[in-house]
From TrEMBL:
Xref: PANTHER family: BETA SLIDING CLAMP (PTHR30478:SF0), DNA POLYMERASE III SUBUNIT BETA (PTHR30478)
Name used for this protein in its record: Beta sliding clamp
Keywords: Cytoplasm, DNA replication, DNA-binding, DNA-directed DNA polymerase, Nucleotidyltransferase, Transferase
Database matches in Gene3D superfamilies: 3.70.10.10, DNA Polymerase III, subunit A, domain 2
Function noted in UniProt: Confers DNA tethering and processivity to DNA polymerases and other proteins. Acts as a clamp, forming a ring around DNA (a reaction catalyzed by the clamp-loading complex) which diffuses in an ATP-independent manner freely and bidirectionally along dsDNA. Initially characterized for its ability to contact the catalytic subunit of DNA polymerase III (Pol III), a complex, multichain enzyme responsible for most of the replicative synthesis in bacteria; Pol III exhibits 3'-5' exonuclease proofreading activity.
Domain of life: Bacteria
Gene name of this polypeptide: dnaN
Span of domain DNA polymerase III beta sliding clamp C-terminal: 253-376
Species for this entry: Furfurilactobacillus curtus
Subcellular compartments: Cytoplasm
InterPro entries from the UniProt entry: DNA_clamp_sf, DNA_polIII_beta, DNA_polIII_beta_C, DNA_polIII_beta_cen, DNA_polIII_beta_N
Length: 379
């Protein structure tokens, strides 16, 4: 095997597949990067069994400056190989593999030799037998991930809650996540209806890595499902993830259908106030912020305090405030995560009582995006 390639173009592909490679795997060969070189392209593969990523660097793209003298394949230590490639002195590099699975890497005056492994021992990628495909604009799908993955659980005691629950029915695509303290739900209407209905749970960790790969220039993301795997296609890159097994809890019953008190406020201004209040609440053992609402006086006040440090009190500039007076306490970190997902929009908060979950929705499109937070009992 022997080829010469533009180093920066090679590094872009290397960074993509490195997201799926872990040093903690119990299968030694999976700590490596698989390279398959054909006459016209290089195929990169990385996997940790939960996530697998395969991407292609094509020779017909002039920017890659790819010239292949001899095709072949090898698995190289991802950690050492990546560090070497990123530190080479010239714009191009040449990799040569002789018998015995040793790779010679040269660029300018620098020359490295590292040991590799036989690529035939590398596990095969999952086979996706489903033909039903969902197409979503890259920026929309990234937004769906980023606004729901904040609510997945980090506790392995309930593995099912460490994923995001996706359902597909006709042209309705819905994502929901909860850790039992908060919930985030997002609905999107697809351009065309899917042929089949789907109900899958994708690990939150997989989705975080996937969202990092969807950049501003990304075209549509294609999603294909099989019984225990999902495949996302992003241009020349294939991203595989295992699915979580089990039944996701029925989250629809957690969302209140009516409220006693409502408040509308720009998300950025409420976020700023919560950030200020949490400066002190973080120093307290229970990390709680209190919100009092007095509808008749059109007054909403945030309180945060730490017995050791001090207290903060701030009146909010609300757009509307209606219903019963209320005093409610909550974890400010949960509310900050929720508020960030709304960006610059104005939001509506709906409260039922001091001990019942409250909801946040955009003022204009409240049916398709909802965040829910469970309050904290302080007495």
């Amino acid at each position: 095997m022997k080829f010469t390639v533009n180093r920066q173009q090679f590094i872009k592909k290397l960074n993509d597949v490195s997201r799926a490679i872990s040093t903690k795997t119990t299968i030694p060969i999976l700590t490596g990067l698989k390279l398959v070189v054909t006459d016209r392209e290089i195929i990169f593969t990385g996997s940790d069994t939960d996530i697998s990523i395969e991407t292609t660097l094509r020779g017909d793209d002039d920017a890659t400056e790819l010239t292949v003298e001899e095709p072949g394949q090898i698995v190289l230590s991802a950690r050492f190989f990546s560090e070497i490639v990123k530190r080479l002195p010239e714009a191009t590099m040449t990799i040569t593999v002789k018998e015995g699975f040793q790779a010679n890497i040269t660029s300018g005056a620098a020359a490295f030799t590292i040991n590799g492994l036989d690529a035939n021992g590398y596990p095969h990628l999952p086979e996706i037998d489903g033909t039903d495909e969902v197409n979503l604009a890259g920026d929309v799908f990234r937004d769906i991930i980023n606004t729901t993955v904040i609510a997945v659980s980090n506790q392995e005691s309930r593995p099912i809650l460490t994923g995001v629950h996706f359902t597909l029915n006709g042209d309705q695509f819905m994502a929901v996540a909860t850790d039992s303290h908060r919930l985030s739900q997002r609905k999107v209407t697809l351009p065309e209806a899917a042929a089949e209905t789907h109900d899958v749970i994708i690990p939150g960790k997989s989705l975080v890595e996937l969202s990092r790969m969807i950049n501003e220039d990304s075209q549509d993301v294609k999603m294909r499902l099989s019984e225990n795997q999902v495949l996302f296609m992003l241009g020349d890159t294939a991203f595989y993830s295992r699915l979580l097994e089990g039944n996701y809890p029925d989250t629809s019953r957690l969302i209140p259908s009516e409220s006693e008190t409502t408040m509308e406020i720009p998300a950025p201004s409420l976020l700023s106030a919560i950030e200020r209040a949490s400066l002190l609440s973080h120093e307290s053992r229970n990390n709680v912020v209190k919100l009092t609402l007095k509808a008749n006086e059109h007054l909403a006040t945030i309180f945060g305090n730490s017995p050791d440090v001090g207290a903060v009190e701030e009146n909010l500039s609300v757009v509307t405030l209606a219903g019963n007076d209320l005093e409610i306490s909550f974890n400010p970190d949960y509310l900050k995560d929720a508020l960030r997902s709304f960006g610059q929009s104005q939001i509506k908060l709906s409260f039922t009582s001091a001990l019942r979950p409250f909801t946040l929705v955009p003022s204009e499109d409240g049916d398709n995006f909802i965040q829910l937070i469970t309050p904290v009992r302080t007495f």
